[in-house]
Amino acid sequence: MARFAGSLFIVSCALAAPTPFTIDQVLSSAFPTHLTAAPTGGRVAWVSNARGVVNILVAEPPGYQARRVTNYTEDDGQDITELRWTPDSTTLVYVRGLGPNASGESPNPALDPRGAEQTILAIAANVTAPSERKLAEGNSVAVSPKGDRIAYVRKGQVWFAPLEGKHAPEQAFVTRGTLERPVWSPGSDRLAFVSNRGDHSFAGVYDVGKNRLLYLDPSTSFDSEPVWSPDGRNVAFLRQPSHGKGRIYGARRADEPWSIRVADAATGHGREIWKAAEGPGSVFREMAAQSQLLWAAGDRIIFPWEGDGWTHLYSLPAAGAKPTLLTPGEFEVEEVALAPGGREVLFNSNQDDIDRRHLWRVAVDGGAPVRLTPGEGIEWSPAPASDGAVAFLRSDARYPARASVLLGKEARDLDSGAIPPDFPLQWMVKPQAVTFAANDGLTIHGQLFLPLRGSGRAPAVVFFHGGPRRQMLLGWNYRSYYHNAYALNQYLANKGYVVLSVNFRSGIGYGLNFREALKYGATGASDFNDVEAAGRYLQQRPDVDPERIGVWGGSYGGYLTAMALARVSGVFRAGVDLHGVHDWVVEYDLPPTDPLTQTAFTSSPLNFLDGWHSPVLLIHGDDDRNVKFNQTVVLADALQQRKVTVEELIFPDEIHEFLLYRHWREAYEAADRFFEKHLRP
Length: 681
Hints:
alpha+beta
């Protein structure tokens, strides 16, 4: 103990300088999402979240200067999603607020006594002082190509509402199942949709004029992702095999192959035009796109497949034939959009830069992809505008996410106010790409943040992301949750900590076998090998005090944080666990007779409580729809019974990914104080 106290004295003196900025400042940039291009006029729109105040911004040629369309002013926890243009590019339709939980309660983390609801609104995008109008309550909005009405989902059924808002909404039709994903035909006379029946699902078509309903080539499988042919005669959709009501846990490197089918929209008769081979790629792997099937020019269908172990784009003739690989190589395609006219597809990937993302374009009938964004930035959400420009979102190691437009080879930021004047750009640390070997030899990637100031052996913190289907990058992340996490890691590095962000097995970006890691999570906790290896990597660094290593993470990262504290408390001396899973049996509602039950519990932190000695800060919102709040209730009680130091920060009526900016700030400020107390006394 004397040696430990002495090392603390030496290092704490070296790191006594105050932090050059606050957590509020490093979280202050406006985070952009839902970037979308208008059908005409070159306009683009996106959602901007500035310290919890969420609004819609629009930019247009030639100046491409952002202007705010909505006028919300409060950090009230009401998000904006599903941004849609009308066909004439004059109006934006959007959803404000999130849907209800299993008890029918809409999120209300601001504790508004009036409650909260999820509403569909419309607002003019081409006037100086527009006012929104409420169209309906619901989500899954589809704007008619005629621009006269919307289809949407309310309480599991499809409804129609006029766009002018002067008439009451009406239910489109009545059918069994939970309806999802309405998609208008090009002529606005029919509507495709998915009817989920629990252990199977159908793709259906409703003929509005004839008031006629039919299902397309129905089977016992899961059919999804309907997309119309340009002439409106056919519908393509995915077919994935059903395993009844049985849930599949853990790695799925292979299964019964999925397929693509095309059905006649008038008769429902369908046929298979392509089927995945057995082995790698037989389990469907999605891309981030308007639909998983994109019907392009030349009657070609673009789809994702990882038949070679990497997520790539393929182009398939709608008549059926061997598909053309559009994006060859050992990298992952992630976000995809068709260019106007449908002759090119834009996408981002980690080609030649595995821990970043860059934009590319390729012809739908094949050819060499062309890189659009060089350098060490991170680019995502390509939105090809109608005038030939390409809008996108970007960041890098220093500059946080912002909306931009590519005009020829020049990239221009759209919102000059997205980064406030007091944002600490000059203090941002450029993280280093590092790799280390897990206990079983697997190579693990990470990002290392080294303090800009201080000397001697510093305290250190390991960060584990959630998901686990995520990848942390060498810069500000493209997801708001991890954008915030990157901000806290930057703050800790500026405070004098060595910070290691770990891309553990079962994450994305490194191919099928890495993502579908054998025995990960509830099926064996193989990812704990990466937890131990991260701690060992830091202990062996000459700039790290091996007696002062902490750990933090949220969701699945909270699970790994708890595993670190429970199984290697001697390495990880303090931890911050945000809404983590602590008992897989409870999280999955596994009955005692399930073959997975015993393995799931032995893969859980609750199985190792007798070895947990390190203090922990538990943070959770009690309206969490992703991880049961009971996970934190049970863990807190069990640790307190064992006299482990437990601190809590509980947010009533808050969900998993905190809706209120002030809750992010409070959580991170609490984490800062907690690490200060236990790693830098």
